[in-house]
Amino acid sequence: MGLDQNVDIAPATGRLGVLLPGMGAVGTTFISGVLAIRKGLADPIGSLTQMSTIRLGKRSDENAPRIADYVPLATLDDLVFGGWDVFPDDAYVAASRAGVLDRHLLEQLGEELRAITPMPAVFEQSYVRNLHSDNVKTGTSKMDLAEQLVDDIHRFSEEHGCDRLVAVWCGSTEVYREPTEVHATLEAFEQGLRDSSPDIAPSQIYAYALLSQGIPMANGAPNLSLDIPCMLELARRHQVPITGKDFKTGQTLMKTILAPGFKARMLGVEGWYSTNILGNRDGEVLDDPESFKSKEMSKLGVLDTILQPDTYPELYGDMTHVVRINYYPPRGDNKEGWDNIDIFGWLGYKMQIKIDFLCRDSILAAPIVLDLVLFLDLAKRAGLSGIQEWLSFYWKSPAHPDGVYPEHDLFIQLMKLKNTLRHLQGDDLITHLGAEYYD
Q1: How far is CA 245 from the centre of its chain?
Q2: Which of 140, 252, 347, 414 has the fewest CB atoms below 10 angstroms from its CB?
Q3: pLDDT tens figures, 231-272
Q4: pLDDT band at residue 1, thresholds of 50, 70 and 90?
Q5: Structural contact between residues 103 and 96, judged by C-beta atoms closer than 8 angstroms
Q6: What DSSP string describes 279-329?
Q7: Res 317: pLDDT
Q8: What's the pLDDT tens digit per position in 414-439?
Q9: Residues 293-297: contacts with CB within 8 Å, 24+ apart?
Q10: What pLDDT does residue 10 have?
Q11: Residue 377 — pLDDT band, cuts 50, 70, 90?
């Protein structure tokens, strides 16, 4: 027996425009992947919306449709792509330079990729020091730049006949910053835009432009952009769903899989040393200590929240957690994440686990972008707004309401995501309480 009433979800009719601030390795891998899947050249591996099932009712009912068949998502054929980048390369050239996808695949997508050219970006050198650009906007103030972005949004929507829009930040990691008074209220932020406050980052200008137009947004980097009071106020005012931050791909994905297992078995962790070797544009940007600090803060928060050292001081209270990122150009997008984990068990006897994850960063991120596009569009059509905590599954540093800690356990995150979908469709949540679930 389901909930009393289904949530009223507007149908996914017409074209869904996907706007990407940042059309480098992640953005072009996502776009190319969707185009390849539409042509039947590949499968959408890694995407929950396309491949995962969701159980309804008792296990004995054997009722587990695919998520794509269960909730009214936009289809891949509905998607049309655009965005901004600091380099003027079209999506074919950008994908070729990123070196993620092989030439044979890109050639089969060449005509469509060449037609996707980035709009000039909002950029400030002081926020991304190791990136030098030649495709940027100029303006009389940061408010002027925001208004130029709004003009871009309207023009893109009209030219491509979009019925709805969604945005996912796929740009670079900005330098680490704490919120200031300019971020405290929407009024203060708008005055800061007019005054070109140095505390307003480019990613925040994008967030302001997009949310002010009622466009849902996800923040794929550890930047301070959506998780500030002024943006939460703006999202509430325009009834916009938001989510972030920092795509959970390689090393942090492994942590959110392994750490819940250690805690479940009450195994102690003495230390966790993580290092990364990365050679793409992201690695170059993170070679700057200030940009690395943004990433480091995002990565370091995962273990403390999962392991709860204050609750289990004898197991995790003295844990040493170290994260390093090394820029190594020959590695390109094929990141290597190496972890040494010092654990201890019965009577305090010590053990070690070593992981060497030779992953493909953009290959892991691309299906996340797809899922976020489709789920944010669903949330908007369902009337959801503000922080979408049920999308924590995709983030290193999940946005969360004030007064509660973020959930980092991958398996709890997945349960929350699927239960939210059940709620939207008026079906019973799966709690594993009650005899009916054990038939």
Answers
A1: 6
A2: 347
A3: 999 999 999 999 999 999 988 999 999 999 999 999 999 999
A4: very low
A5: yes
A6: -SHHHHHHTSHHHHHHHHHHHHHHHHHHH-TTT-HHHHTT-EEEEEEEE-G
A7: 96
A8: 999 999 999 999 999 998 665 444 44
A9: 293/175, 293/176, 294/173, 294/174, 294/175, 294/176, 294/221, 294/222, 294/223, 294/224, 295/173, 295/222, 295/246, 295/325, 296/323, 296/325, 297/176, 297/222, 297/397
A10: 96
A11: very high
- Residue 244 token pair: 């972030």
331 Cβ neighbours under 8 A, 6+ residues apart: 277, 278, 279, 283
| Residue written as token pair 């799966």 | 430
Residue 158: Cβ-neighbour burial (10 angstroms; 0-12, 13-18, 19+): exposed
Nearest to 248 by CA among 399, 98, 397, 373: 397
| Domains within the chain, CATH numbers bracketed | 15-247+363-424 (3.40.50.720), 251-358 (3.30.360.10)
Q: Which amino acid is at 76?
A: L
Residue 291 contacts residue 130 (beta carbons within 8 Å): yes
Do 425 and 71 touch, CB atoms closer than 8 A? yes
Tens digits of per-residue pLDDT, 41-85?
999 999 999 999 999 998 888 999 999 999 999 999 999 999 999
Q: How far is CA 111 from CA 39, 93, 118, 136, 324, in A?
A: 13, 11, 15, 25, 40
Which residues have CB under 8 Å from 299's CB, separation 6+?
A: 251, 252, 274, 323, 396
CA–chain centroid gap for 365, Å, is 8
